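Subject: Thoeris protein ThsA Macro domain-containing protein structure
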Amino acid sequence: MTILQDMQTWRFWRHFLVALFACVGGLSTIMQTFNVIYPGSHAMEGFGILIAIIALSVSAALFKAWPRPIAEEYNAPKTRITIVPGDLLKEDGHLVIGTNDTFDTETPNIIATSSLQGQALQVLYGGDLREFDRHLDDALVNTPVGTLNKPGKQVQYGVGTIATLKHAHRLIFFLAYCEMDAQNVARSTPDKVWKGLLALWAEVSRRGNGGTISIPVIGGGQARLSSVLPAQDAIRFTLLSFMFASRNSKVCDELRIVVRPDDYRKLDRLELQSFLSSLRSS
């Protein structure tokens, strides 16, 4: 149970205790004020009043500290951010899918079938690799930056290249944030991820026409950055880049970061909510 996990964190108990003492203090002040105004009254005395104060304070503190969905609304920029567990490919809005700078697609020899890109081939294109490649080739308008002598695709477009594909009623943004080497091993760095994210937000702002953008946790998987950017840090990284970009021009109405359920259970969700709240006044 995710709620039970949240309740085991110090952050939950800190919020709970602060709210509890604030409620007890507020109710005690009301009682003392009443006794000053009506010195002969015994209405605010006795064991029953004490139990009522404790019950009200505990209830109010639980309501204040109780874990909620990770979400925040912003006025500047006018947008909403949510962090949810789930399957990215089941989202209804525009999607972001990470890839490499050669835009290799062949499974399973080059791209793992279990990867998000490998699943996208099956779910979005019914496993039709030729159609998928044709759509990617049509979308790749950037000038190549080099070539690699390797199996699979050999033209490099560089980190930060976005291939925007039209799929039914929505757009799929294929974001190159990894560099492929001659052995078909994709790698990235925090700098490259940041560069890719900034390029992504510019493209989404230009093509997305508002709406909802769903994005996975960028930085793990093929980027081989799990030890450098674990999921918690990778999410904060994405959030910061999004907020910086949004202050220049609106990116979208809502950003949804879709986290695999196993990874979501490991997140410090209250810390992420606190981080989202801190972005309101920064």
